[in-house]
Design a protein that fits this description.
Distance between the termini: 68 Å
Largest sheet: 6 strands, mixed
Radius of gyration: 22 Å
Number of strands: 29
Helix content: under 10%
Number of helices: 1
Length: about 375
């Protein structure tokens, strides 16, 4: 019996050590297991290892849902607790992974009193210079006070350390974002086939979406395809795009799709191999996510110099149309780009940006395969 108790104590230890992980929340990724009362000064965490499974540095607060700061009620994204990162504060956790595999980090964040908050997400070891994600939080896309974000990387060692850092320099050191629900997912790069020259055209491979996350996951702007949380795709716009799931949104095909949130500032692209002189047909679905995004929408699709604009009138209740673009390739590589023509806002008076959903992107050569 003593041996069993000792084993349980070892398994439940909260020392800062690496943890093997399957897709999902990091150990204590929701911060529901918090510091001891003796490790808190008000809401400020006083020991770097006080939050089980995490190591902190700088001005970090442990915030309970409903906590008031002056006249402001702080919103905890999920569960009862979250952490707030003040100026230059960070949290980090070690995780055992598969070397060489691509991963995506997902977490929820809520802005507090600062207006131009941003977060720096990184992983170590990392041999690539300047390979980290600066995630801007000036624009909030959901109507509930927080958003979920993602960032991806390739593991260079069997044990890595994930860090989320607030590089802010606000006058009030406590003015920083709330962080909650930190998760990790392995990404697998889909291959092109004769039936579809587009990688991941149905967007089924993407970042981890927590089961209770009904607001989707933002994929930040200016993401290249080598480390994209949306494998195969480049986020080449000024604003984020949203990864949505069929459990909470209307999705034209399969389990996932992409919502273009910010007009022509929200775009995705992919470079595909083509043969000059060959004729290709690009097909895709355009619809709405059943998220109160109503009104006139349009998606512009480009394949090299060829283009088509697909109008869609949304009632905000789901639905989609199919579109087609036929073109002749002029080079060995053709860039496919999709963007939203207009800005749209949800009809719930929240002021939240929204837009058309794109899904089921397919590209075939009409000479090698007859279209149905």
């Amino acid at each position: 019996m003593q041996k069993v108790n000792l084993l349980l104590l070892i398994l439940c230890a909260t020392s800062y050590s690496a943890t093997s992980l399957i897709d999902g929340l990091l150990p204590n990724g929701g911060f529901e297991n918090g510091p001891k009362p003796s490790q808190l000064k008000g809401t400020v965490v006083t020991s770097k290892t006080a939050i089980p499974r995490w190591e902190i540095s700088g001005y970090v607060e442990y915030i309970e849902s409903g906590h008031k700061q002056g006249d402001m009620l702080l919103v905890v994204p999920e569960g009862a607790y979250a952490v707030r990162l003040g100026n230059e504060a960070s949290i980090k956790q070690k995780v055992k992974v598969v070397k060489g595999t691509f991963y995506s980090v997902t977490f929820s964040a809520a802005r507090t009193c600062a207006q131009e908050e941003k977060l720096n997400v990184s992983v170590s070891p990392n041999s690539e210079t300047h390979d980290w994600g600066i995630l801007p939080m000036q624009t909030m896309y959901s109507s509930n006070g927080w958003d979920s974000y993602c960032w991806s990387f390739q593991a260079e060692a069997p044990e890595i350390e994930i860090s989320i850092h607030n590089p802010g320099v606000d006058e009030d050191p406590a003015c920083g974002p709330l962080i909650d629900s930190v998760a990790l997912k392995a990404l697998y790069i889909p291959r092109r086939t004769n039936a579809n020259l587009v990688k991941n055209g149905n967007f089924e491979e993407g970042p981890y979406v927590p089961p209770k996350t009904s607001w989707g996951v933002l994929i930040p702007p200016h993401v290249e395809d080598d480390h994209s949380p949306l494998p195969g795709w480049i986020i080449e716009s000024l604003k984020a795009v949203k990864y949505v799931d069929s459990d909470h949104f209307a999705v034209p095909e399969g389990k996932h799709a992409v919502e273009l949130l910010a007009g022509k500032e929200s775009a995705i692209a992919q470079v595909v191999s083509t043969q000059p002189g060959k004729v290709y047909v690009l097909t895709f679905a355009v619809g709405d996510a059943k998220n109160s995004c109503e009104g006139s929408m349009a998606v512009e699709a480009y394949a090299g110099k060829a283009s088509v604009t697909v109008p869609y009138t949304s009632m905000g209740k789901g639905g989609h149309v199919r579109a087609k673009l036929r073109f002749t390739a002029t080079s060995a590589h053709t860039r496919l780009t999709f963007l939203s023509s207009y800005y749209n806002m949800q009809s719930d008076h929240s002021g939240s940006l929204c837009g058309p959903v794109i899904d089921d992107v397919r590209l075939v050569s009409v000479r090698s395969r007859k279209l149905a």
